[in-house]
Design brief:
InterPro entries: MBLAC1, Metallo-B-lactamas, RibonucZ/Hydroxyglut_hydro
Organism: Bactrocera dorsalis
Number of domains: 1
Subunit structure: Homodimer.
Pfam family, one: Lactamase_B
Distance between the termini: 54 Å
Structural class: alpha+beta
Largest sheet: 7 strands, mixed
Main location: cytoplasm
């Protein structure tokens, strides 16, 4: 009998664009992802804005038969408000990750991830791990899922990648803001080398190609020669 896959589902595809009515503002919301593991754990990554609670609850129920209390772990890839707004729905979760900070209520976990070490935080053994990927913010994390319906290794990467177009045009992620662009370039290459499929912070998921990997290698190497 084959072992059941870890299922990765994009609940909402994110976006970021200028506000057509206000030149001083932009419109943005994150890509929100549900991970259903082969051992029965449910993990949500990036929870939209605080105004999206009703539609997030409806999507979980209508598409997957889940209630907020069925979510075991919440991972926010970083602390920006469009990635954290509906955390309040998931008060039954064992852990909430705010980037590399791991907590439940007023309990904050002292672990290698929160101390800035490179060791991954295992959510389901090696099947699902949280890793530090600093750049967009210095506290950013990504979630790696192995053995999935979307490929052997899926990276849910938050704003490490804005959307697939920023591989060809890095000004997209640079203009979106980066607390450490050099680190972000390195982490982008690290993730794309490891993953077969990537879910970015503000766009559709995409299958990784060798051409994409080569472009990111060139961008890292080019920056190192400056």
């Amino acid at each position: 009998m084959s072992i059941k896959e870890n299922d990765v589902h994009i609940l909402f595809t994110g976006y970021s664009r200028p506000d057509s009515n206000d030149s001083s503002a932009m419109r943005a919301n994150c890509t929100c992802t549900l991970i259903r593991t082969r051992n029965g754990r449910n993990i949500i990554v990036d929870t939209l804005t605080a105004w999206d609670g009703e539609r997030l609850t409806e999507a979980l129920q209508n598409l997957h038969g889940l209630k907020p209390e069925d979510i075991h772990v919440v991972v926010c890839t970083h602390g920006h408000s469009d990635h954290t707004g509906c955390n309040y729905l998931f008060r039954s979760a064992q852990w909430h990750f705010m980037g590399a900070c791991v907590s439940n209520r007023d309990k904050y976990l002292d672990c290698p991830l929160s101390r800035g070490d490179s060791e991954p935080f295992q959510l389901c053994g090696d099947d699902v791990v949280v890793v530090r990927t600093p750049g967009h913010t210095l506290n950013c994390v990504s979630v790696l899922v192995r053995g999935t319906n979307l490929g052997e290794v899926v990276g849910v990467c938050g704003d490490l990648f804005e959307r697939v177009e920023d591989i060809m045009d890095p000004t997209i992620w640079l203009e979106a803001g980066s607390e450490n662009a050099e680190s972000q370039r390195i982490q982008r290459l690290r993730m794309i080398e490891m993953c077969n499929y990537i879910i970015p912070g503000h766009g559709q998921g995409f299958a990784v190609t060798e051409n994409m990997r080569e472009l990111l290698r060139q961008q890292v190497n080019s920056n190192n020669t400056k």
